[in-house]
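Course assignment 3, question 2. Fill in each field.
Student: A.L.
Task: Predict the tertiary structure for the chain below.
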Amino acid sequence: MADKLAVVLVLQYRMVPRWLLKVILKLRDSGEVTFPAVFLFPDHDYHPSHSMVYRLHELLDQTVFRNGSDDDRPEDLIAILDNPVVYEYTNNDSLQPENFMKEDWDVLLNLSNVETPHWLEHSFCYGVLGFSIDPPFTMTGMDPCYRALVRREPYLTVTATWSGIFCAGKKVIHRSYLPVDRNSMIINERNAWGMCEIMIPRLISGLYRSGIGFIWEQMEKFRDEKVRSGVMNHAPLKLSGYRAFRNMAGVMTDFVRRKVFYRPQFRWFLMVDMKGHAGGSGQLDGYKPLYPPDGCFWADPYPVSEGGSNFIFAEEFDYRLDKGRISVIELDDLGNVIGINCIIDRPYHMSYPFVFKVGDTYYMIPETSANRTIELYECTNFPMEWKFVKHLAENIDAVDTTLFYHDHEWWMFTAVCTMPEFPDYRELFLYHAHDFLAEEWHSHPSNPVVSDIRNARPAGGVFIRDGKLYRPAQDCSGRYGRAINFNEISEIDTLRYSEKKAVRIKPPLNRGLKGIHTFNSCSELEVIDVYEYCKRFGS
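Answer field:
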């Protein structure tokens, strides 16, 4: 598309929060859009809560967790645009569509809580792009970020919808599932705003570069997602003082309980099944625990059977140094530990040793996001000696990089941090190359292929069962390591990617375990990592 997109904004007021101003400035400076007009639709239904308790909760939250952020500071958006025409209305009855129906405008970008009038939807060459922050379930008179906190909901979503002449009704064209902070509504707001800062320019740029076909592809990708009743800005709060007090007391009690009775570290260890019978079925019967030495934990296991011996490569995290290194654990035929050796140690944190074999040579890609690299190592004397080969990527905050070979192409999954202020949230990016030693890996056109706290981050190597490809993924909604999903890869090529959840593994709670986040197997054994909370008092 040669000409710039003529994007018309719908806002509630000319004063917008600073995070939204940054989005518009990013679009303006991209060279892909112009802003010829702005509609102002004041939200007459929004009234801040009159509950003194709620306002006290909000004040405490901002005092403790704002951390210098000014993302909600109001700014005059109209003043920074290039003299747009401003249509300001006090109610829908005053709209005069004949004033602008003949304008050559491409897209209406609705960044307000107000529904776009139907007659306005059909006034644009392409349609209406809207955004909302949604709760997991139907929202009743409560701001979604506040509700997610007080109801302890496992995730929030940021949703992009499309409507207009090219589709019947409103359709979801993108939805990101975000983690919920258990302590702060303002952190949840900043998380959602951060995703909006990424999602809005992505979609506008996709439309500019590929035309309406890009929107149709997005509709197909999210065809199973339903439109929810979310809001873009603060929602009306129908909240009594008593209910606000209960909510605040619940959040504070939970915060104090975790601080007083539990240590910040988890106790990670491994569980192994020497029979290897599950084959990705999700059944954990028969697994035995492998506990690390005092002063460290084991996580991110990757098993290899070689020369009649069984080995597990794993992250060995040293509590004293607050840093991980890569170690190899040797097992006997019964699954007992008979040897532990550190094999790769760098000044920066290392974890997730993804091991793969090409010909007769073993290679490893450990997680080195602390160095902002994706590093490749070659084994020169199995399993003890490894040498650095090259950086597959640099200047990237990526974790849990996982390779596999399929249809004469190498594929790389990696979980990339797209919001530096929220490192716990990552999106799954897919790259491909003809050779795993290639100088350049090509980014998949659907990137990020997964934007979902429940399913994005890799949890082990891709495996085949009954002729089907499965990708293990971490579910970190609600808490880290909530579960592992085995996703069947239904389509993968250089243009398309799709997967669907097939099997779900939860930590065996009857054993006191709270999390699980890696599954790997080889011919002789399967191994997972699990954790339990560390109590400050008692066992």
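Instructor remarks: The domain at 263-534 is CATH 2.115.10.20 (Tachylectin-2; Chain A). DSSP finds seven helices and 30 strands in the chain.
Grade: pending
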